């Protein structure tokens, strides 16, 4: 028996390979065996090269081997991130259901927007959308009117406001009678001052109405003229100082209530106005005097 041949170790990377030495008794072996033995180093060499390539490719980022030193890996302490608390926005926290007034304003704003869009861009779609908003509001108003009328009928303690045409005429007559009574009482303490200019056409138109009003309600009329002329049936005075005192802007015609006891002068007509407007102005003046405790 042949003695076992010694082998040498070759260190390549982390692999330890045995390299067989040439055998002396190759002639005693068959041709096939010799071929295997002779070819095996080349196969081993190719296997080694492939293994090194894989090792190098896998260890590019983290090389290992006898010639490499690596610092020990110290585990990092996990830093606990603070828990994110859900912050509630002030608008969401304070959000409350809309009031009835706010809801009504939203409906009005939506209708106005739809109407404006239909006017600026009058397409069939935009106009139809504006009509839908309008009809919705009109239906709501109709329902409200029905409920209001029903509530007036079934609620006996409700003080009903007169709205029918016949009732309004009766109330108007009552108000006129009360105003006529107040004017006759007012005429006992106040007189009328009519400021005018002889060449003022509006003064000539207003003068007959002033005379008519004064006669019907018992007022004395004193004309204050910026000139020498006077109207028929009216006592006139030409006093520049008094005229400037009551009418500093010298606008004509002007009509005043004047209290001879207190020298109080209250304007009741600026320019030419009708009889109905004059009565309305005096109604407000009487209400003012009553609130002030002067009548």
Topology:
Blueprint: E1 8-12, E2 15-19, H1 31-58, H2 90-93, H3 100-120, H4 124-154, H5 165-186, E3 191-196, H6 201-217, E4 221-225, E5 235-237, H7 240-246, E6 254-259, E7 264-270, H8 275-291
Parallel strand pairs: 3-4, 4-5
Antiparallel strand pairs: 1-2, 3-6, 6-7
Helix pairs in contact: 3-4, 5-8
Question: Could you give a quick summary of the protein structure above?
Answer:
The protein folds into three domains: 8-56, no CATH class; 123-157; 169-291, Glutaredoxin (3-Layer(aba) Sandwich). Helix content is 50%, strand content 13%.
Give me the secondary-structure category. alpha/beta
Q: Tell me the overall shape.
A: elongated
The CATH architecture name of the largest domain reads 3-Layer(aba) Sandwich
> Could you list the spans in which at least 5 consecutive residues all have pLDDT below 50?
7-13, 24-39
Main beta-sheet strand count, sense and barrel state: 5 strands, mixed
CATH H level of the largest domain: which superfamily?
Glutaredoxin
Number of domains: 3
Strand content: 5-15%
Question: What features would you describe in this structure?
Answer:
There is one protein chain. The protein has 295 residues and is α/β, with parallel strands linked by helices. It has three domains: 8-56, no CATH class; 123-157; 169-291, Glutaredoxin. It is built from eight helices and seven strands, in the order E-E-H-H-H-H-H-E-H-E-E-H-E-E-H. It has helices spanning 31-58, 90-93, 100-120, 124-154, 165-186, 201-217, 240-246, 275-291, and strands spanning 8-12, 15-19, 191-196, 221-225, 235-237, 254-259, 264-270. It has a five-stranded mixed β-sheet with strand order 5-4-3-6-7, with helices on both faces. A two-stranded antiparallel ribbon has the order 1-2. Helix 3 (100-120) packs antiparallel against helix 4 and helix 5 crosses helix 8 (275-291). The protein starts with 7 loop residues before the first strand and ends with a helix. Residues 7-13 and 24-39 have low confidence and may be disordered.
